[in-house]
């Protein structure tokens, strides 16, 4: 059931239904270190100044490659800067130059959209999950002030591939959910989040207008939607960190239209 992999918001609603027949159930994510020092530092943080410029690093395959052609200083709006790192699959998360770049720039947000090429190259599920876990552990230990988002790989028009993509999506959901449950932090103090990209599905079916004829890559409209999902995740987290009230569509705020909601 593809609906079990849709989610509801970028983990804004934690009561996402657990898949009934998921391969991910048999994979127990290793426990990340509970760092009491970090929790204490978070509790002591001063209010973030409204004028702060938030830095985001996007690590993505070709699905979000169109962002390269944009003015990265304006791609996410005012008071946001965007840095891009291109990687084909989750094995790229192990590259030392990726880690060096993150240590150099120290982004507030790290947004990872990878996975469909893991499936195309028939990576073992545990290999992909280990790549994801080791990267999240690196962020936890070396970039204590960065928040890490995993953007779920999109379903395609290939039913066989979708079965494996669904297993990977379920496993990422399981990893993020179990980690946050174990750490027991308030939502905005967590370091790990996911974005289900739920709006690429409607009534348990792909929204075909969002994909090109190859059934994998986003169309012009799909590119707008996947970029909107990225923006909404970053903007919503920024709003929470700045303790700003949630605006409604009637006031021209960040609340997205139903067709672009993540």
Outline the fold blueprint:
Layout: H1 36-44, E1 54-60, E2 80-86, H2 96-105, E3 109-113, H3 116-120, H4 125-142, E4 147-151, H5 159-183, E5 192-195, E6 201-202, E7 205-206, H6 220-241
Parallel strand pairs: 1-2, 1-3, 3-4, 4-5
Antiparallel strand pairs: 6-7
Description:
- With 262 residues, this protein is α/β, with parallel strands linked by helices.
- The chain is 34% helix and 12% strand.
- It has 6 helices and 7 strands.
- The chain has helices at residues 36-44, 96-105, 116-120, 125-142, 159-183, 220-241, and strands spanning 54-60, 80-86, 109-113, 147-151, 192-195, 201-202, 205-206.
- The strands form 2 sheets. It has a 5-stranded parallel beta sheet, with helices on both faces. A two-stranded antiparallel ribbon has the order 6-7.
- Helix 5 links the parallel strand 4 (147-151) and strand 5 (192-195).
- Helix 4 runs parallel beside helix 5.
- The longest helix has 25 residues, at 159-183.
- The two termini are 19 Å apart.
- Residues 1-29, 36-46 and 249-262 have low confidence and may be disordered.
Strand content: 5-15%
- The global form is globular
Give the strand tally. 7
Termini Cα gap: 19 Å
- Biggest sheet, spatial arrangement of strands: 2-1-3-4-5
Main attributes of the structure:
single chain, 262 residues, alpha/beta, five-stranded parallel beta sheet, 6 helices, 34% helix, 12% strand, disordered N terminus, disordered C terminus
